[in-house]
Design brief:
The chain is mostly beta strands. 5% of the residues lie in helices and 39% in strands. The protein has four helices and 27 strands. Strand 13 and strand 14 form a beta hairpin. 30% of the residues are buried.
Length: 383
């Protein structure tokens, strides 16, 4: 057979494929002739007809094949449209190595079907802008974006906002509004998707597995055959999640010796330090948590008895200026009030509870001992 048109482009969402025999087929008595339409290089069977004419609605490469067969020996009920291939059927018949007498024109008549995208697919996701490019996580936080008003939503189409995470654009959420609650730090993107629910089945999306690239590959701009539009760049948002974690005091109580005591603590391994952030250990004294020292290690020397606490601070030096701290005056509560967990605006984390250590006063070990007179009675003679 040969195709009457090997390449078909249409502005309608329907294309008619038809073929003509180069030579008249031989149909023995008791045999039937049937025309089979397959799609793609795998020759997946899409339809059958008594004439070599078919209507298709998808962009693809198609082939019309001629099948001459005996209905008594070849049961075509085995064919599942969209699953069974022409190769499967060919393997059952004598020319394909099977045992059933029949013949299938495997080469058939091929067609390439395209549609005029400019005319047919007018969906346009437009663009969207993050309301805040960087957001601080405090347990959970809301990230959002605002469409710029340049999307095109044809009649019958819908708009969906898709949240992806990481450079691989893994889909983690979707909804009717460009606003999402997240509980983990990371790089997120909010995308706009304009699509026809009748042609793009979003039940294929598995949150945490399917990527935006997977969906993009299904639609026309991504090389697929479904009319839809996805704003791939979207609105990037970084969620920073500093977490000071916790500390455990190496000794909960120590005593001054020679006027000095060393206090130390060990991090419990639950800290999170985002890129660009630093770690500082802060020593406070008393119930008011007055800051008396700070350093890169959770170890300090003190010369006074009292109640102390070692805290961990995770902060960005470009946003939290520790030059404001006046040792002996500024308190941990003052610093906590500046950061997001304490109601402030600066993204940082302070372990307020910290590792408490009690320092006891040095024991007095001085002892005058005893003394004995050399003579209990002495006589005075002038002197």
């Amino acid at each position: 057979m040969f195709a009457e048109e090997s390449s078909i482009s249409t502005t309608n969402q329907v294309a008619v494929l038809s073929a003509t025999h180069k030579a008249k087929p031989n149909v023995p008595e008791g045999f039937n002739i049937l025309y089979v339409l397959t799609q793609g290089t795998d020759l997946v069977i899409q339809a059958v007809n008594s004439d070599p004419v078919f209507e298709v609605t998808e962009y693809a490469i198609y082939t019309i094949h001629t099948l001459v067969y005996d209905p008594n020996t070849l049961d075509l009920n085995i064919v599942e449209f969209g699953v069974t291939t022409g190769v499967d059927v060919y393997g059952l018949i004598v020319p394909g190595g099977g045992s059933i007498c029949a013949d299938l024109d495997v080469a058939g008549a091929s067609f390439k079907v395209t549609f005029n995208e400019a005319e047919e697919c007018k969906a346009d996701a437009g663009t969207i802008k993050a309301d805040a490019a960087v957001v601080c996580l405090d347990g959970e936080t809301t990230i959002s974006a605002t469409p710029t008003g340049d999307s095109v939503v044809p009649s019958g189409y819908s708009t969906l906002y898709v949240l992806t995470k990481g450079a691989d654009l893994v889909i983690v959420n979707a909804g009717p509004e460009p606003s999402f609650t997240v509980t983990e730090g990371g790089n997120y993107t909010i995308h706009t998707l304009v699509y026809d629910p009748a042609t793009l089945d979003l039940t294929i999306v598995e949150l945490g597995v399917t990527t935006g690239v997977d969906v993009f590959g299904l639609i026309i701009p991504g090389g697929g055959d479904i009319c839809a539009s996805l704003d791939v760049p979207g609105a990037p948002i970084t969620v920073e999640a500093p977490d000071a974690g916790t500390l455990t005091a190496d000794e909960s109580s120590v005593t001054l010796e020679n006027g000095v005591a060393t206090l130390s603590a060990t991090p419990n391994g639950d800290i999170n330090v985002p890129d660009g952030y630093s770690v500082l250990y802060v020593l406070t004294q008393g119930g008011d948590l007055v800051i008396v020292n700070a350093g890169p290690d959770p170890s300090f020397e003190v010369t006074e008895a009292g109640d102390y606490t070692i805290h961990t601070l995770v902060y960005d030096p470009t946003t939290l200026d520790l030059g404001i701290v006046d040792l002996g005056v500024t308190t941990g509560v003052d610093v906590f009030g500046l950061i997001v967990p304490g109601g402030g605006a600066i993204c940082a984390s302070l372990d307020v509870t910290g590792a408490p250590v009690k320092v006891d006063a040095e024991e007095c070990k001085a002892d005058a001992g005893t003394i004995k007179a050399d003579a209990a009675v002495v006589c005075l003679d002038g002197e």
